[in-house]
Amino acid sequence: MLKSKNTLGIIFFPAFDWAISPTHPERQERLLYTQDQLREEGLFDIEGISEYKPDVASVEDVERVHFCFPDVPSVATRSHLISAGGAMKAGDLVMEGKTDRAFAMVRPPGHHAMKVVHGSRGFCTINIEAIMIEHIREQYGHKRIAIVDTDCHHGDGTQDIYWHDPDTLFISLHQDGRTLYPGTGFPRDLGGPNAMGRTLNIPLPPNTSDEGFLMAVERIVLPILADFKPDLVINSAGQDNHFSDPITNMNFSAGGYAAMNDMLKPDIAVLEGGYSIQGALPYVNLGICLAMAGVDYSHVREPNYNAERIRQDARTTEYITELCKQLPALYFDPPEFVSRDDSRQGIISGDKFVRHKQIYYDTDGINEVQQESVTLCKQCRGLYKVETRADSGPLCLGVEIPVDACPECRAKGYQTVEDAQIKGTYRYIQLINRLDKEYVRYGF
Amino acid sequence: MLLGIDVGGTHTDAVAIDIGDAPAVAASCKVPTRHHDLLSSVTEALTTILGQVDKSAVTQLNLSTTLSTNAIVQNKTEDVGVIVSAGPGIDPHNFMPCKDFHVIDGSIDHRGNEVRALSTRQLAEAVDACRGNGVRVFAAVSKFSTRNPRHENLIRRTVCNCKSVDVCEHADFVTLGHQLGGALNFPRRVATAYFNCAVWRLYNEFATAVEEALDEMGLGHVKVNILKADGGTMPLPQSRTLPVQSIFSGPAASVMGIIALTDIFHDSVILDIGGTTTDIAVFADGAPLIEREGIDIGSHPTLVSALKVHSIGIGGDSAISVVGPEVRVGPNRLGPSVCLGGERVTLTDALNYVGACKVGDVAASRKAVDAYAAARTLTGEKLAQGAVAYAAQAIQDATRALVEEINSKPVYTIHELLEGKKIVPKKVYLMGGPAEAMREELFQRFQLSTEVPANFDVANAIGAALTRTTWELELFADTQRHVLFIPTLSYRENVPSGYDLDDAKRDAVNQLTMQLDSMGVFLKAEDAQITHASSFNMVEGYDRVGRNIRVKCQVRPGVIKTFGEGR
Fold first, then answer.
1. In the beta sheet, which residues pair with residue B272?
2. Which residue of chain B comes nearest to A80, CA vs CA?
3. Mind telling me which Pfam families this protein's record contains (chain B) (predicted)?
4. Which of A12, A28, A304 has the CB atom closest to B536's CB atom?
5. Is the peptide bond before B336 cis (omega within 30 degrees of 0)?
6. What was the ipTM of the complex prediction?
7. Which helix (DSSP H) or strand (DSSP E) does residue B103 occupy?
8. Which of A130, A140, A248, B26 could tie A152 with a disulfide, CB 3.0–4.6 Å?
9. Nearest residue on chain A to B548, judged by CA atoms?
10. Model confidence over B437-480: pLDDT tens digits?
C-alpha cells in the first residue's frame, strides 16, 4: 500500500448545494469531477492522507478580519462560513500537529475579498485565508506568515488586508493585470509605509507555461521565503492558470502545479479559483494533494496534455527572466515610501498615512468609496481607520487596534470610536481590537 | 422453519427457528469447527439440528462461513491474472496484488469518455504471459469502469478469445471490475476483483459440496443463502460469481442476532464479547452503521461493504499480564482459561474470582489467580479486580474512539453539516460468553442502560437465520451523452435529454426489484431505499448542456422477524 511521506489532512467541502447562479462558473458542479477523480484514485486510502470535515466560522471569526457592512449575516451565506471554517480546520490540523500539512479544498473562494466587505467581488465574499490566518494567530500566538497566491487572478483582497502588516509576507503570481481581472497587482505595489516590501507582485504575461512559473518560483519566491523565515507558508491555491481554463489565458499544467507545490512546500493550501472543472481541476487537485503528501505525482497528467502545444515562446521566457532579475530587489531592498500628490497611492499627512480607494464589487454590482488612514507610529504598526460608503448608502466606520498596539494607539482607537459615536454621522461602526481580542459593533 | 449456521473460529453454531406469529428457537447446537474440513462441521451441525425438528418444514438455510476468509489468511488462493487499464493518475503498480499483473495503455475519464483506446497489442501480450504461467482466472479492471465498462469488456473478450458470451475456453472465470459495485475507487476495485478470483474455485467447490450434502439429507428443496459482511444475504447461485462478498460475515451475523433478539430504537452500542476479541458495533437510530467504503482484506482496502465493526483483542480467553504497577488483559490469547483446563490466567478466571460468573472449575481459577498474583507481589483480589477493570475500561475507550471517529466523518453539503447527525449512544447491548459477567463492570463505565438479551449464546446463528436478502445498485446517468448505466448489472440504456432525478430514482427502484425478482426474492416497494440521489447541471460556456445524475438504491440490511418485545 502507498504511504505518504508527510501526513496530509484534506478538508473537502464541495458545497454541492450552493452556487452563485445556475450557469455561473462558481456553481455546484465545480468540484464534482475532482471528487470523482480523488475517489477513483483511492487518494483517501493512502496511509497518511485523511479527510476531515470543515468547521463553521463564527461571526466573530469573520469580524476578526473584516469590516462587514451592514453586518456579517447580510453579506456571507452559510456556505461562505463553512468554506472559511474549512480553511480554519486546515489551520488547526497543522497547528495542533494532527497532520504535517493540510489542504482545504473548499468553495466558495475568498482571495478577492478585501478588508471592508459590502458584497462579493470576483466570486469572493469573505477572505477565507485571512480568516484562517487570524484564527491561527489568535489561537496559537502570533506567527510570521507567508502567503503565496498562485491563483491566475491577482489576490487583491488578501493584499489589501495585509497591506500594513509587516509580519505577513504576501506574494502573488498572476496573469498580468493589464490583461485580466481585477486589473491590479503590479510590481510598484509593495505595501504601506510600515510594511514596504512585504507585498510582492509577480505579473506574468499571458501564455506563460510550466517553464515560466517554475522559474519565477525558483528565482524570486524561494529566495525571499528563505530570507523571510516564516513560521507558516500558505498557498492560495487557485488553479485557473491551467491551459484549459475558460476565463484566463495561461498555459500551466497539472504536472507543473504539482511541481510548484513541491517547491513551495506549503504547510497549508487553500483552494481559490479554477473553472476548468472537467479538464483541469480533477488533475491539478490530485497533483497538489500528492505533492503535499510527498507521494509520487509523475503519472498525473491531463488526458489532452501536450507539452509542445502549450509551450511558452522565447519572448515570454525572456520577459520572465528579466522579471526574475529585477523583482527580488523590491523585497530585499524596498524603496522608501515617498508621499506624492496622489491620494490614491496614499499621502502622508501629519502623523498619518491616508489613502482614498474606489472599489467595484463586480459580482454584486456595488460601488464603494473609502478613506483609509494608518497612524505612523514608532512603537507599533499604527491605528487603522477606514471610512466607507457603498454607492449612496450610509457612511460607515471601521477601526482596528493592531495586535502589537502601543498604549497610545490603543487609547486613540477607543477615542476614535467614542468620538465617532458622539460627533460622527456613521450609520454603523465596527471596532476590531486585536490586542484585547475585543470585537464590537455599534448601530446594528 | 428457518435454519441458520454460523461457522465461527472455534465453534459452528446452528439454530432452527420456527417463524409463526412469534419466532422461537426450535433447536440449537454448537459443534467444533474443523478448519481443514468445514463441510463436515456444517453437516454435523445440520444433522444435530434436523434430529430435533421436522425436516420437511425447513424452507431456508442461511449460512455464514469463514471459508473465503481462511483461504486468504492461509494463502490457499489461486493465481490470478490481473489486467488493468488506468490512464493518468497514481501509478497503478502501487496496487499490484499479485505477480501476474499487467497495466495496459488506455484511458477513460470521469465522465466515461474513452480518452484513449486500449492497446490491443499490449493486451494480447499480457494475456499470453498469463496463459504461459497457467493462469485460469482473470480480473479485468479499468479506471472509471463504473462510468463506462468498455475497456473491461474488451479485456474479457480478449482473455476468453471466444464469440459466445457464456462459454469460454481459455479462462474458467473472469471478474469484471464494474460488476463488483458502482462506487468509485480504482485501487479497491483492483483488490476486490483480485480476491474474488483468488477464492472463486475453492468457494465454488464448497458451494457445490453444500448443495450435494443437502440433497443427500433430503433438503434439496431448501433455499440456501450466504451471509455477507454488510448484514444481508445473497442466494447461493448468485454468490458463486461474487464469493468475495462472503468474506468477514461473522461479525455481521452477531449484529443481526442482536437486531433479531432486541428492539433497538436509539443510538446504541453493541458489544459482542467473545473468547479472543470484543466486536464493537454502533447503531444510529436503531440501524447498524456500515463502513463508508469497504473492508480491508489483508492490507488491501476493498469495495466489500460491511457493517462497521471494530474489534479489540479483549475476550474471555485473553491472558492477564502485569506490567509495572498495571494489570493488563489481552490482546493475546494463550490457550483456554484455567477454569477450562488451560494454563494461563485469563479474564474469565478473573471474573470467576470476583464472583461475576461460575465458568468451569471456579476453584482452579481462584488458585491460579492467587498464584499468579503472589509471584508479582499482588493479592489475588487486586489482580482479578484490576483485570476486570482494565478490560471494561479498554472496551469503553475503544467504543468512545469509534463513536468519535464516526462523528468526525466528512460531509458534503451545507445541509448535512448543519443538520449533521451526531451519534450519542443511549444504550449498551451485550452478547457473547462473558457478557453477563461483564455487565455490571461495563455499566459502571458507560452509565447507560445495559442489556443482555436471552439466547445471547447463539445470537450469531439466530442472526444468520433471520437475515434477509439484500442487494444494492448505483445508477449513473449523463444526459449530455444520453446514457444511463448501472454497473453492477452491466445495464446500459439510452436516455432522452429530459431525463431527470425522479426518472432515475424510479428506474433504480425498478431495476433493483427486477434483479431481486430474478433471484427469487420478493421485494416490497417500501423495502427499496434510495440512499443517495443527486443531480448536477453540466454547463459549457454559459449554457446548460445536460445533467449528471447519481442514484444509489438498496434493500436495507435487516432481519425478517424479531424476538423483541415490539413484535
1. B279, B431
2. B414
3. Hydant_A_N (PF05378), Hydantoinase_A (PF01968)
4. A28
5. no
6. 0.92
7. strand B101-104
8. A248
9. A29
10. 899 999 999 999 999 988 887 888 999 999 999 899 999 999 99
